[in-house]
Amino acid sequence: MEARAEEEYSVVAMQLHHLDKVLKIEEQSFPTPWSRYAFTCELLDNDFARYYCLLHGDEVVGYMGLWVILDEGHITNVAIHPEYRNHRLGEFLMRHVMLRCQSSGVQRMTLEVRVSNRAAQSLYKRLGFADVGVRRGYYTDTGEDAMIMWKDIL
Predict the structure, then answer these.
(1) Band (6; pLDDT cuts 50, 70, 90)
(2) Structure confidence at residue 4 (pLDDT)
(3) Which DSSP string corresponds to 54-67?
(4) Which domain holds residue 61?
(5) How many domains does the chain have?
(6) What pLDDT, on a 0 to 100 scale, did the predictor assign at position 97?
(7) What angle do CA 50, 52, 56 make, to 5 degrees?
(8) CA separation for the pair 110, 74 (Å, rounded)
(9) For residue 142, what pLDDT is reported?
(10) Using CB atoms within 10 A as the burial measure, which of 45, 54, 90, 133 is most buried?
(11) Domain CATH code at residue 50
């Protein structure tokens, strides 16, 4: 799939004009979706934020965001449109962004994932992330715990 993905898909910096599509994916992906305002603040006001869209032609089919602080990247969100899931596009997007981060000096990455989200955990483990702990009650919408995962990307 990866060779095909490189031919059919591209990863670009998220822009404000992408937000309508990003918000639709966000709403289909998370129990408590981020608002337009939250994404706009990340894009315009957060100097640490780096957000990317996965495009199929001109269509936004996924996105990923992270904060880069010194030599660490903290992944804030990753989502693929439901119609495009199960084709390793999340992996394609994350590998692409991780290479960009590595080339700009990021040495390690971290994220939190719901303990119930086995599919995402499987993806992150495939990418070399290790489970290093739990944040109890991290998700305020449900009180669910978050698994903390880290990866050294050098």
Answers:
(1) low
(2) 55
(3) EEETTEEEEEEEEE
(4) 2-108
(5) 1
(6) 96
(7) 175
(8) 5
(9) 87
(10) 54
(11) 3.40.630.30
Handedness of CA 29, 48, 111, 108 (dihedral sign): positive
Token readout for 70 is: 């010194």
116, part of any domain: no
Could you tell me if residue 128 is inside a domain? no
- Segment 83-104 shows an average pLDDT of 94
Q: Could you list the active site residues? A: 112, 124
| Rounded Cα distance, 107 and 97, in Å | 13
Residue 136 pLDDT greater than 60, yes or no: yes
Residue 90 lies in a domain: yes
Residue 151 domain-assigned (yes or no): no
Query: Which residues share a beta bridge with 10?
Result: 55
Is residue 74 over pLDDT 70?
yes
Distance between CA atoms of 124 and 98, rounded to whole angstroms? Answer: 12
